[in-house]
Amino acid sequence: MILKRFVILSLLSLSTLTSVAYASSDTIKQEQKSDATIEVALLLDTSNSMDGLIEQAKSRLWDIVNTLTTLKYQGKEPQIKIALYEYGNDNLDYSKNYIKQLTPLTQDLDLISEKLFALRTRGGEEYCGAVIESAVEELKWSKNRNQTMKLIYIAGNEPFNQGKIDYKKAIGKASEKGIFVNTIFCGSNKDGIETFWKSGAIIGNGKYFNINSNKEIEVIATPYDKEISKYNSKLNSTYVGYGSMGRSKAMVQMKQDSNAMSKGYSNFTKRIISKTKDNAYNNVSWDLVDKVKSDKKYLEKADEEALPTELQGKSIVEKEQYIEQKNQERVVIKKEIEELSIKREKYIKEQTPKSSSQNGDDLGTAIQTSIYEIAETKGFKR
After folding, report:
1. pLDDT tens for residues 225-274?
2. Which of 209, 150, 210, 159 is nearest to 181 (CA)?
3. DSSP string, 230-269
4. Calpha distance 62→57 (Å, rounded)
5. CB-count burial class (<10 Å; 0-12, 13-18, 19+) for 122
6. Structure pTM?
7. For labelling, which of 2, 73, 284, 314 has a CA lying 20 to 30 Å from the CA of 381?
């Protein structure tokens, strides 16, 4: 009996030490945060014929995020931010050239997903020069040119030179800020060239692609998808909402899980993997775990009313212990997901030659390909 109790206690101690080790690793990662950033603006045509494009964007968002998170700058993980625009829709403001900024450059990827899934197409005028200029001038792009990769992706199917704003001048403004402009024409290669989409990419030092926007996204299901999906609710349980947005944003998080699942288990799995990436998926505005990582003293100065009920009336030490416990739980869960995701990627690589998906780009593969090509020129490595 004594020996049995000793073994049980030893196992419990080992589990605790493992959790602490993972937590310590996470803390170190925070202290060594890189100054490098990758900033991506997605400009999507939401006119009548672009339903397929929007569906591809919904299915490929997490592929794009996970591609970006494979990159490092001088061995460190860059901070990743994404912005979203729509253009070319009659429901948008005519005085603003039928353009709308849906999100700024942000790490609130649930917001990106929420806005993306809310998009609806409707006939309109597509002004590529105008939407590029808006993205260049409105977004808060990093001023650091040496450790930053700044990318614009514009996708659509009407002539690139439509509208009052000259696309060449708009792209010139982007180049002045070190932004690469990549163009994705929804149609044939010949039509994309003749309607100046390739010209836009050449002037913008970016890449030109033509895609079939109505192509159904092919995925490779893996034995690890459902296994990874089982961790999602555990991961969500480590988020501690605070402030006026705490409860509502937690609901948004779950809704975007549901939206990802609507595109299949594989897509849902990719979202869960994205949620393990601290340099891309950050919820500092509503989650106390992320907030305390960025502001170690926040719990000392936070109003009691802003805290969740389980922390109200507790001492500072008790609050810190609670948040650290949630942090440790999250680190362990993320570690387990990451280990499964490595096996998943290996399986996909082994199965890819057998897949029939190598018959042209879609929105996601076009963006993924260009990310890696441009990264090489900017010193970002896989």
Report:
1. 999 999 999 999 999 999 999 999 999 999 999 999 999 999 999 999 99
2. 150
3. TTHHHHHTT--B-TTTHHHHHHHHHHHHHHHHTT-HHHHH
4. 9
5. middle
6. 0.89
7. 284
